[in-house]
Amino acid sequence: MSNPFPTSRIAPQLLSVLRIVGAFLFIAHGSAKLLGFPIAPGAEPHLAPTGSLVWVAAWLEFVGGALVLVGAFTRPIAFLLSGLMAVAYFMSHAPNGFWPLLNRGELAVLFSFLFLYLSAAGPGPWSVDAVRGRSK
Length: 136
Known about the structure:
Radius of gyration: 17 Å
Strand content: under 5%
Number of strands: 0
């Protein structure tokens, strides 16, 4: 019997979509800490103090996220960002309890595993790496 959902044909393109959407969402975390944008209406921006650990992480989120968004140097950058999110989870969230839902660490866990997957799977066909022939 044939598969009614032939996703294997479009799996490479969906990998690119996952990379693009995930990186776009990730960049917002860095830009909020560096530029104060985006910010909730009526809220005050909480900019990372220059030179702090949060500031370094914000630059990695912003620049690394932008590189992953366009699919440039995806595998090594995604691996670095996966580690960044694992460290963020264990430094900021895990001390507040075991369950990510309760310690507010779900995004750190999801981003860590998203980037770990991208470091193994590559960027997909819609990427700078694919154009340069470096996605294999």
